[in-house]
Amino acid sequence: MFQIKIFNQKHAMSLRVTLIIVFLLVGCIPVMIQNSVMLGAYRQNLIDNRMQEIQNQCWILSNKMTRIGYLTMEPRDPLLDNEMSVKADMFNGRIVVVNRNFRIISDTFSLSVGKLNVSEEVIRCFDGENSSKYNSEKHYSALTIPIYSNSQEKEIAGVMIVTASTEDLLNRISIVSEKGAFLQLMIFSVLAIFVVLLVKLLIKPFRELQRMLNRAAEGEMDEEVSSYAYKETMQITETINMTLKKLKAVDQSREEFVSNVSHELKTPITSIRVLADSLMGMEDVPEELYREFLSDISDEIERESKIIDDLLSLVRMDKISGGNLNIAQVNINGLMELILKRLRPIAGKRNVELTFESIREVTADVDEMKLSLALSNLVENAIKYNVEGGWVRVTLDADHKFFYVKVADSGIGISEEFQEHVFERFYRVDKARSRETGGTGLGLSITKKIVLMHQGALKLQSKEGEGATFTVRIPLTYIS
């Protein structure tokens, strides 16, 4: 995974490069499309004008042939033949005249006179349908113009076939294309300079943001990151500042945790040492006092062991993810009854009434061992931090999506100012009371961790002197 991240980082594209490419494409593609469209339109316009010009000139020739009876005269009019040759040369093409018998009577190339021409275009022209085609592959145009027998009857007596090359037009288009390419190059050069300057201006706030983040990465986390050039940078700034605050809080929490762990582990050891030193410093110690000291030492050792066990539980849960839970279908009603059965002797010693109300049968996907530990912690705390002769009520309910466990007690309650801290490690509202009851300050932290691992939620409602209610909500179906 680490190697993949490095590979991705090495091949990640710079935002600056990305923006330059995008802006250049956005600017260049329309210019290229416009140039292509205009060049195509210019080319088509030249060809259409050439064909229209040829058609007009050939109609003039056709009218002259009709007036002088060119198709029937012998010999042919040399002036008209000469004019026909001049026009063919002018269009860089060829003019052929076919009579009613489909025989060629005139050819400016003098190659086909006397031969037959029974092409589809000639037949259609005799039927009154003129044709005008352009061959884009060979770059020439072909037209058919009717020749009438006389101007009164309008009877088609012959057909003039005209072919004209467009090579000269293509040369003109090529010249225009070269000039257009040069203009495009100039536009692209100016656009590239403009885009580079624009992108430099646009990413300047991000550069500044990066500089601030680098300073934060070097350890200057007290300096607030701020960039308000764009709405996006404002949102990023707010998110980063929130993250930095959380990081500082985590760092502070880590320091407090280390300090608390040191203190909690050191306190029983100090007590054991004091008790042991006292025993060693006394002569002829009575057996009763000796037993009392040893009992106190045993209690401190047990307390030390419990702290270590809770710490190990927290460490194990910090290391594993939700996917490592041993999920199975568990009857929550039976689980709660088993938990309460184990805790009733503790409640009996403190004269606390422990009741369980099951609204409905509940079966859910949970890790039975971990959930049992979490719920046991809640009920045991409710018993330990209760008043003499008080009560603890445990309620189980469910809807179509979640099941709920409420643990309410008549205990000392928790002031609002302390409620947001009770789930922190080693945090205890009444440290003296916690020490009397043997609490380590890790129970609620472990409970919340387990509930979160089950994709659930843990809420507290309490007022000082009026007891507390902890509500656990966990999905009936675990989604990995």
Automatic annotation (TrEMBL):
It is an enzyme of class 2 (transferase). GO terms for molecular function: phosphoprotein phosphatase activity; phosphorelay sensor kinase activity. Coiled coil: none annotated. Keywords: Kinase, Membrane, Phosphoprotein, Transferase, Transmembrane, Transmembrane helix, Two-component regulatory system. One of its GO terms (cellular component) is plasma membrane. It catalyses: ATP + protein L-histidine = ADP + protein N-phospho-L-histidine. Its EC number is 2.7.13.3. The chain crosses the membrane at residues 12-33, 181-203. InterPro entries: BphY/WalK/GraS-like, HATPase_C_sf, HATPase_dom, His_kinase_dom, HisK_dim/P_dom, HisK_dim/P_sf, Sig_transdc_His_kin-like_C. It holds the Pfam family HATPase_c. Residues 260-478 form the Histidine kinase domain. It is found in: Membrane. One of its GO terms (biological process) is cellular response to phosphate starvation. This is histidine kinase. It comes from Lacrimispora saccharolytica (strain ATCC 35040 / DSM 2544 / NRCC 2533 / WM1).
